[in-house]
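new request in #modeling-help
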Amino acid sequence: MKEIQLIIDPARVIGRRDPRIYGHFIEHFHNQIYGGIFHPDSPLSDENGFRKDVLEAWKRIKPPVIRWPGGCFVSAYHWKDGVGPERQPHFDKAWRVEDSNAFGTDEFIALCRKLESEPYICTNAGTGTSEEMSDWVEYCNLRKEGKWAKLRISGGHEEPHRVRYWSIGNENYLPGEMGAKTAEEWGRFVKESAKMMKRVDPSIELFAASVADLNWNVHLLKEAGPYLNWLSIHGYWDPHWQNNNLSDYEACMLYTTRIEEQIEKTRHILGVTGYLGKIRVAFDEWNLRGWHHPNVDHAVDPADYVDPRNLNDLDESYTMADALFSACFLNLCLKHSDLIGMANYAPSINTRGLIRTHEDGIVLRPTYHVFDMYRNGLGDQVIDHWIRDDAVFEVASESGKTGVPLLDAAATRVEATGEVVISLVNRHPDNTAAVRLVSRDGRRSVNRWTALAGGSKDAFNDRDHPDRVKPVSLADYTVDGDTVLLQLPPHSVNILSL
Ligand code: AHR
């Protein structure tokens, strides 16, 4: 395999790495909350009912922001059912199960405090009203004025929760969403909701459910653009809502070449509407794999629509394909660091998440390690890089065969120390990639090389083999004049410090 050249220029800073691209999303779905994070009956839980092993692993990847409570769930959720001393169960019309409401706003805030993470609340723009949303802001952010702040205080929370991030709605553009809206309805509704929420607390940052569609955004931004800080978009590239026939490694590598389409389209939409540079993008739900929840809109027997959700928990589903896809996604967030300021992995715990819980402990899936390597390893400045003479490998596609580039990369710099830290992804399923690294400032000493490769492209972790896929230190490089020749293992994510 011929050499690939990667040229980096530490002196050419092109952006800042916003830590919020390593954000998280948890939803009242299956066992993410109840029986996952929040499990009062478990001997592994703390005094607040949170699984201590989940908190410990989650804290290690420093979650900067957590979005909650949905997702589809939120579009028929009434937050007032989830606060106060008496919690009445409600029927969750999105996922058609009973929700005890034991986990509500105050429990979510307590979770964020334990994780030192910013709470991000997504409101009900489906069956909810603008007033209900602004009441939620009163409950969380007013000191003591009005009934809702007083209700919070009566629950023992004297100090405001100070929730900074608020989204109006979740995917209300989708016909299947509770309270779906037309583009015309959406613009007006967001404007009225934003007006009321900002009157309660002008300091909040507002998001609105969006999609890479010109018509949707023209109406949204014409009506509510002046109130918005963020557009919320979502992405699941291997969708398996109905069947669970997950795509193989090679197909997932092809998906990595299709992430940018949505980003570019949204950038152009913001440009044409005059909001580029004023409104940023929050990719506040993303995952290679769509969640599995078949038959939810028509099945009668829970065995046909609730039980199949257990298939999301099969650890063998989450392999190096997930890890490499996530690495490429996060590299793209750096390339578009002027536009993308937040991204939330969907979800973080259980379902297709980073961490899976079972009664005796947790499993760290391969993508958890990508978050660890990136969140804790890369620099705060994004610097310019160029891949020259990239090689491609062929994968099957709708058009027969498509070439997928071997190498994906991102380059960063630690402003305080000048250290350069780069991410290198070798997408090839079988071959080592020879990469000749050329740094414009002549640096060529590798201080640290951490690699996540697993024993095979389909390697995964499970409760009997928790460390089959884990980061290891490598040194398979040679200095050659002013360059460094690296041998990247197949199907690997690599972080190198220079
Ligand atoms: O499959 C889960 C759903 O995906 C989330 O609830 C929703 O926001 C997205 O469509």
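bot summary: Residues 27, 70-72, 170-171, 234, 285, 290-291 surround alpha-L-arabinofuranose (CB under 6 Å).
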